[in-house]
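We treat protein structure as text, and this decision shapes the records that our systems exchange. We quote a single record here, exactly as it is kept in our systems:
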Amino acid sequence: MATGELGKTILIIDDDPDIRAATRIVLESAGFVVGEASTGAEGLKVAQRIRPDAVLLDLMMETVDAGSKVSAQLKEAGFKAPIFLLSSVGDAVRYNIDARELGLAGIFQKPIDHKVLLATLKTELRVK
């Protein structure tokens, strides 16, 4: 996997290939290297292999709360990079889930506002 201009790798774990493709294009055009996985199990394996600097993780994949379970498994495995949850269930998830309590860096609502995504990642990862 080649290093992008920013020298940071983002892993997208989402069962929707269109979300992964669109997000990959946005991230790569901004200088990030991108890894992908379509399931939680695959995401755990890819995370161990590429050691991403941040993870974008879909809340609902194989099960309703797959994202929160994968997040917990990443943390248990010693993964320290920021994890952002992706949700399509509406704004209510932001009010019903305490991201910091779950060890998450934040929650993005689908469809993802790419400007907000890039600004947040650059701030979190301290890149310009």
The first helix runs from residue 17 to 29. The radius of gyration is 13 Å. Helices lie at 17-29, 40-50, 66-76, 92-96, 114-124. Residues 9-122 form a domain with the Rossmann fold fold (CATH 3.40.50.2300).
